[in-house]
Specification:
By secondary structure, the chain is an alpha+beta fold. It has two domains: 68 residues, 434 Repressor (Amino-terminal Domain), CATH 1.10.260; 106 residues, no CATH class. The protein contains eight helices and five strands; from the N terminus they run αααααααββαβββ. The protein has a five-stranded antiparallel beta sheet. A hairpin with a 6-residue loop joins β4 and β5. The longest helix has 47 residues. The two termini are 23 Å apart.
């Protein structure tokens, strides 16, 4: 999706309705700085606010995501294109989040193991040895909790029995046995346990 084009369209429709950025922001319950970011193409409206925004601008969601008015005969085609574009964006965002998980977790675990190794084999005062090991373990566990949180939010898990895709709670994810990003969990749809793989999109 072309954020610059969408931003200009939002600005055009806002002016068409005789609203300033401040007035539109007040109606939506957000800051006028957020409106400015939309209109300059620096960010997009959140999905939770799109319907209300479209209602105020007297447009529909497909027109918003297209950045232009859509004739009736082209509506279905543009709707499909917008859905595909949104799906690609969600996929890419989830992929980036999962890459971030690795960038955070791997260096922290390596650094923690090096500290434990140094504390175990080099000569140093006992208090320093204990402090170093405790610090390393706290760092590893803290980063592990953060990494699981990133993994839980990025994408979905797919049940191997009914192929339902869903987002489990943080603690369901954290406490489940796992091999990499495949976790042994109970499916909320069929109620069966299976090794569920991480997938990037909701669609099967």
């Amino acid at each position: 999706m072309d954020q610059i084009k969408i931003g200009k369209f939002i600005a055009f429709c806002r002016k068409e309705q005789g609203m300033t950025q401040a007035v539109l922001a007040e109606k939506l319950g957000i800051s006028d700085r957020a409106i400015s970011k939309w209109e300059t193409g620096k960010s997009m409206p959140d999905s939770g606010i799109m319907l209300e925004l479209c209602e105020l601008l007297k447009i529909n969601v497909n027109e918003l995501l297209s950045g232009e008015r859509i004739m009736a005969e082209a509506y279905d085609k543009r709707a499909e294109e917008n859905l595909l574009a949104m799906r690609r964006e969600v996929e890419e965002k989830n992929r980036q989040m999962l890459q971030t998980e690795y960038w955070i977790a791997i260096p922290a675990v390596i650094a923690g193991l090096i500290m434990v190794f140094v504390a175990s084999f080099l000569e140093m005062p006992v208090w320093l040895r204990i402090a170093l090991i405790v610090f390393a373990l706290i760092m590893i566990f803290t980063v592990a909790f953060i990494a699981v949180g990133i993994e839980q939010k990025a994408g979905y898990y797919e049940c191997q029995n009914c192929h339902h895709r869903y987002v489990p709670t943080y603690w369901q994810t954290n406490l489940a046995m796992h091999m990499g990003r495949t976790r042994y969990m109970k499916c909320p749809k069929c109620g069966k346990r299976s090794w569920q793989k991480k997938v990037l999109t909701k669609e099967e």
